[in-house]
Sequence to fold (339 residues):
Amino acid sequence: MPSMKAVQISKPGSDFELVERPIPEPGRGQVRIKVEACGICHSDAIVKEGHWPGGIQYPRVPGHEIAGRIDKVGPDVTQWKPGQRVGVGWHGGHCFVCDPCRRGDFINCKFEKIVGISYDGGYQEYMIAQAEAVAAMPDDLPADEAAPLLCAGITVFNALRNARARSGDLVAVQGIGGLGHLGIQYSRQMGFRTLAIGRGGDKKELATKLGAHEYIDTTAGDPAEALQKLGGAQIILATASDSKSMSALVNGLGPHGTMIVVGAGFEPLMISPLQLIPGSKTVRGWASGTARDSQDTLEFSSLSGVRPMIERYPLAKAADAYQQMISGKARFRVVLTMN
Fold:
């Protein structure tokens, strides 16, 4: 039986294992993808450490930022053909019959599948995906650059395009990291007056290079006051998972402004009603999106030139790649490549 290389976690807290596995066959409504690149996301720690609330069946192959080509389709799959360039992100499928699905709200499916958690992800040479979880990938987008757009990219792109903001509005992006460096680019390309918020003056040059019109150094003063001097932000995209910093920025919102939280932290936000009531301000979270949203992200990135800054590792060095990501030293996304 033909085999492939895969990197798995055998139990919570264990090390990554490079193993040989049989190449899987797609079932009904599934496709097989020959993986060309897979990004490493901080959420992969959920698999590594076993933190998923509903439990995970081990051994499990992590990875939900997958770029490759359709290799084979299963029965009843009509929308995909072998050879097509595709990507798969966090959203791994939905049931089509629960109340959210019946309303077309597939990202909130009560039985949503998560790639790399519900079933094996992209730290392997071939992977099986549900047909409805697959996004078409533009031909001019390299696989290693496309992969991070299927999680980090879609998260900030989808949040911004669904925000209540118009071209010319002030959009502040908190954090210049894996999410933030993409958020700055998308904000600029969408026509917003883009402001980056970071710690230290040394980040100003990078923020400007990414497309920020202005930069606020949080060590030089109160960033909320600086935002108010500019009229207040219509949108604050909070990408750095520091709840204290996010809470302090709420005072920088303008009338009817919204803070959109995409950086996942465990500490509670400390916000008083009096910070929200005057000016009718809002704080909301945003999940990533469906395969159609992923496809929109890839297409917009192709058209606008938005690209992630990446560090590449071969599949066999997955443990080193994960450590580079989890240490916070990566600039800014780590990608496993299969070649």
Residues 256 and 280 are 5 Å apart (CA to CA).
